[in-house]
Amino acid sequence: MRTIPDSVVVGIGKGGSCKTTLATQLSGIWASEGKRILLADLDMQASATKVVGLDPMQHGDGRHLMDAIMYGDELTTVRARDNLEIVAAGRHTKTLSNHLVTAANPADAFALPFEKLMSSGRYDRVVFDLPPSGSSRLADMAMQTGKYLLVPTSAGVDNIEGLRVLASELEELHSDILLLGVVLMKISAGAPRKRVEAQKDIADILAGVADPFQTIIREAGAAYDDSRKAGLFLHEYAEWAATVSITNQIRGKIKIPANLGELAREFFELADEVDDRIALADRLLQGAAQ
Fold first, then answer.
1. Burial (0-12, 13-18, 19+ Cβ within 10 Å), 209
2. What residue ranges of the chain have pLDDT lower than 50?
3. CA dist., res. 217 & res. 90, Å (int)
4. Residues 128, 9: contact at Cβ < 8 Å?
5. Which residues are 183's β-sheet partners?
6. Under 8 Å CB-to-CB from 116, ≥6 apart: which residues?
7. What is the pLDDT of residue 242?
8. What is the CATH number of the domain that holds 69?
9. Is residue 215 in a domain?
10. Range of the domain at 199
């Protein structure tokens, strides 16, 4: 089975589990820190493409990835920020997913264009934003050929219990992807008991497989919505908000979400924690290969 070098797959499970939020915010932070990031949007709704401020229709509507996998064309990427390029999704993403259902050697066909890009030296890391599990063959291909898996979840019996099917899903796909851990998201900062209980539940479910990340991302609907409307990543929006005068904020001319700064800080802490786990996993894999 092919493995795409330096690849991080974000997601598995139902929609609404913050997969796109996690994939895009981490990609934006890593790019701001100087890492050369390729963000691959695999969802026909093109949520990641829109989050970075791009119009899917103006950038192929998913045709570039479809042509690369189905016809062997060079994979076209779009610049979103310094150090950040994206493989845009859109309506053609569904056509590609349907094609992969009956294609011969679909995992190899999916991996090849990404392997070419990574071997070119243009990128340090490729991040895959998945559609909901079961809704796209592209999600299966990324799970089969990705190197590392990052799983977001939120508190609640249904979401946390859903992690119990993770191992069986990976087994059905015959995937060798390595689970870096689970990120707990959308938890109120004012509910410490709920945070502790949720982390314990995740740790119990994943015992012997992976540890939950220590960084927890708080619930912050207004901050997400406002930053997306502005076409900015959360950390970019927080940097802009810091330049808004107190006078304008008091007079209500500009309303800044109260938890914006803390939310951006949590994503930076999480990005560092993910980097540390990737570095540790790389060392262990290199040691095992020697």
1. middle
2. none
3. 28
4. yes
5. 152
6. 74, 75
7. 86
8. 3.40.50.300
9. yes
10. 7-220
Number of domains the chain contains = 1
**CB-based contacts of 220, cutoff 8 Å, min separation 6:** 257, 259, 260, 263
Angle at 16 between CA 137 and CA 20, to 5 degrees: 70
Tens-digit pLDDT profile for residues 25-63: 999 999 999 999 999 999 999 999 999 999 999 999 999
Phi-psi region of 94 (alpha: psi -120 to 50; beta: other; left: phi over 0): alpha
Look at residue 256 and tell me if it is in a domain.
no
Residue 116 belongs to some domain of the structure: yes
| Three-class DSSP category at 226 | helix
Q: pTM of the predicted model, to two decimals?
A: 0.92
pLDDT of residue 188: 77
Please compute Rg for the chain using Cα positions. Answer: 19
Cβ–Cβ under 8 Å, residues 150 and 211: no
Q: How far apart are CA 195 and CA 206, in angstroms?
A: 17
Give the burial string for 169-188 (b: 16+ CB within 10 Å, else e): ebeebebebbbbbbbbbbbe
Select from 155, 207, 156 the least CA-distant residue to 181: 207
For strand 84-87 and strand 78-81, is the pairing parallel, antiparallel, or unpaired? antiparallel
Instruction: Tell me how many degrees the CA angle 245-247-251 measures, rounded to the nearest 5.
Output: 125
Mean pLDDT of the chain: 87
Report if residue 260 sits inside a domain.
Answer: no
